[in-house]
Write a structure and sequence with these properties.
With 161 residues, the protein is an alpha+beta fold. The protein contains 1 helix and 10 strands; from the N terminus they run H-E-E-E-E-E-E-E-E-E-E. It is flat. This is Arrestin-like N-terminal domain-containing protein.
């Protein structure tokens, strides 16, 4: 009797603690520096090299490591019985920048090269090719930040090169 009740109540206590922890984690993360990434091209094609810049609003000096990664992902959805399954596969991943020196963290710039031997952005009812810039900031003793910025990559254009 009382052991069953204790186990029953313990489950709800643990769920409550997890919700409270999640709330405080979200509140702390709201005070993290905010990242803005600017690409200096409105139309990016396979094979293009694009300049970009980043800037943090807030105290970037708290960040111990900042990485920016370009990822190309393929997603395929299919039916298995009555369930819809989506498989994803990263077909391209390259670290664009990594900063560990806080003097260079607040703002910076770089270049991204979209490889020629890959696929452009594509979406159909069951398949999708996505290109995403993934930003990750390690902040000691504080919730890290992870931001994804979807970018549109167009097919190689005839006569551009």
């Amino acid at each position: 009797g009382s052991i069953g009740f204790t186990i029953f109540i313990s489950i709800f206590v643990l769920i409550g603690i997890a919700i409270i922890f999640g709330f405080f984690h979200a509140v702390l993360a709201a005070f993290n520096p905010k990242l803005t990434i600017t690409l200096f091209s409105d139309f990016i094609c396979i094979g293009d090299e694009v300049s970009f810049s980043w800037e943090f609003k807030g105290s970037a000096s708290r960040i111990s490591r900042f990485t920016l990664t370009l990822t190309g992902t393929e997603a395929a959805s299919y039916r298995r019985g009555t369930d819809t399954i989506t498989d994803t596969h990263n077909f391209y991943q390259a670290e664009i920048t990594e900063q560990t020196n806080s003097a260079f963290m607040q703002r910076g710039q770089g270049r991204i090269t979209i490889p020629e031997e890959t696929m452009h952005t594509f979406k159909s009812s069951n398949n999708e090719i996505m290109w995403v810039l993934k930003a990750h900031c390690d902040i000691p003793k504080w919730p890290d930040t992870k931001n994804d910025y979807t970018i549109s990559i167009h097919p190689l254009q005839e006569g551009r090169f």
